[in-house]
Specification:
Blueprint lengths: L22 E4 L7 H7 L4 E6 L7 H12 L3 E5 L8 H13 L4 E6 L1 H15 L4 H4 L17 E5 L11 E6 L4 E6 L7 E4 L9 H20 L23 H23 L4 H21 L3 H11 L18 H6 L2 H8 L4 H10 L12 H15 L16 H9 L2 H4 L8 H10 L5
Parallel strand pairs: 1-8, 2-3, 2-4, 4-5, 5-8
Antiparallel strand pairs: 6-7
């Protein structure tokens, strides 16, 4: 907590926050314990979702050997799409529904873990995917009940999906990116082995790393949980509750770790200290935003990613045209934080300082510029594009981008200030070029 007043209750406002977390283990080599973990959850036949880029790696070999040694019958599914679509979710759900499984295991990045979550949901409680998709795009049907136990093993230091109850996909025909959100979709257990990140290409480290601390800054600067109306019952308390004292702890430490290690982890593939620290930062940020929420940069990112399927990002060349999630987030972040800073200047300055910016003598009105400039410096140091223009967008794309972002009301309501369509148009134009 930055001050004794930030989370003070408002009249008739919320007075409590809920921490939704799950079992987690972290450490080099813990993927070798996967069989014991699956057995402890009662699994005998598991659906094993593996990123095809991970399937041939040593961590994947160790994981499969551990499952076999524990007597777990693991059926492998590798048709994972990086940046999933509604179709790829449905294909995975078909596999899960036909396999007579009693557990789910995912080994890969956020796309793999999200695919496993969606498959688990649709196989357990079959329905049209749009029925579960967030409103106003979908029906926002509540997840009816518990899902099969799910062990999530991340192999990238970015999304924090192993700790959250959200699964994101691209609704191709609607040209919008959104997802399903429920605490019941949170994996039962996260097994986080930082050695899985040691062979990631530099471009993947950059994109996933920026996702880490953008998550963290957004959750730290989200509207405080006390600003919401108190729900009629605890069951109606939303998964994204707003900034709270618990999430603040993880978010701030994740920002510090990213500020210290991201540039190092991108520059030197032998710097295992940096890459392991980024993996821990990713898990911390996931726990933080999974309870607090994210806001404008992520809302903008879904429009950017869903409307561009031609860009070839460094480190993702084999995946075909797409804008990786972390890039689609951070490319909007400097513009977004310049906009939100006047609502919470102290928190924006604290985030900037945690990233390594000099804030000595800074006035409140300097907060947005200092944080944005620090982000831009780190983007340049890690060879990221200079703005939306460099990944193919132009001013005439702004109206469509605005519509895609404005549909993300689940996220926009978490911003520390109101966001109109005109505001979003200004932000997309500001994000066209930073340097």
């Amino acid at each position: 907590m930055t001050s004794s007043t930030h989370h003070l209750p408002r009249a008739d406002g919320e007075t409590a926050f809920t921490v939704n977390a799950q079992a987690m283990k972290f450490g080099p080599g813990v993927v070798a314990e996967l069989g014991d973990d699956a057995k402890s959850l009662g699994m005998t036949r598991a659906a094993l979702f593996i990123d095809p880029n991970v399937a041939g790696t040593e961590p994947a070999r160790i994981a499969r050997a551990s499952l076999a040694q524990a007597g777990i019958d693991a059926a492998v599914y590798q048709a994972i799409r990086i940046e999933p679509t509604d179709t790829s979710f449905l294909d995975a759900a078909k596999f899960a529904s036909e396999g007579n499984f009693d557990g789910i295991i995912s080994l890969g990045g956020g796309s793999t873990i999200d695919t496993a979550k969606a498959a688990n949901l649709l196989a357990t409680y079959p329905d049209d995917l749009l029925a579960y998709i967030n409103a106003p795009i979908g029906g926002a049907k509540p997840v009816p009940g518990p899902l099969l136990p799910h062990i999530a093993c991340p192999t990238t230091s970015g999304t924090g999906s192993e700790t959250t109850g959200v699964a994101i996909c691209d609704l191709v025909d609607l040209k919008v990116k959104t997802g399903v959100l429920s605490k019941l979709m949170r994996p039962t257990m996260a097994v986080v082995d930082p050695t899985t990140t040691e062979t990631m290409p530099a471009g993947v480290v950059a994109c996933t790393g920026f996702d880490v601390f953008t998550h963290a800054i957004e959750s730290y600067t989200a509207r405080p949980y006390t600003s919401r109306e108190k729900p009629a019952s605890s069951a109606l308390r939303p998964p994204y509750q707003g900034a709270n004292p618990f999430s603040d702890i993880g978010a701030m430490h994740a920002i510090r770790l990213a500020g210290r290690y991201l540039v190092r982890g991108v520059a030197d593939e032998e710097d295992t200290e940096a890459r392991h620290a980024l993996m821990f930062a990713s898990t911390l940020a996931g726990v933080a935003f999974g309870n607090a929420g994210v806001h404008i940069p992520h809302a903008m990112s879904y429009a950017v990613a869903s409307q561009n399927h031609t860009y070839l990002a460094n480190g993702y060349e084999t995946e075909g045209g797409m804008v990786p999630h972390g890039l689609s987030v951070v490319i909007n972040a400097p513009a977004a934080f310049r906009f939100t800073a006047d609502a919470q200047p102290e928190r924006h300055l604290e985030a900037a300082a945690a990233l390594g910016a000099d804030v000595s003598g800074a006035a409140p009105e300097d907060a947005g510029e200092i944080l944005a400039q620090r982000l831009e410096t780190m983007m340049r140091q890690t060879n990221l594009p200079s703005g939306l223009e460099q990944i193919g967008y132009r001013d005439n794309d702004v109206p469509a981008l605005v519509e895609g972002a404005y549909a993300q009301q689940r996220l926009l309501v978490m911003a520390p200030k109101d966001v109109s369509k005109d505001d979003l148009a200004d932000l997309f134009r500001a994000a066209m070029r930073y340097w």
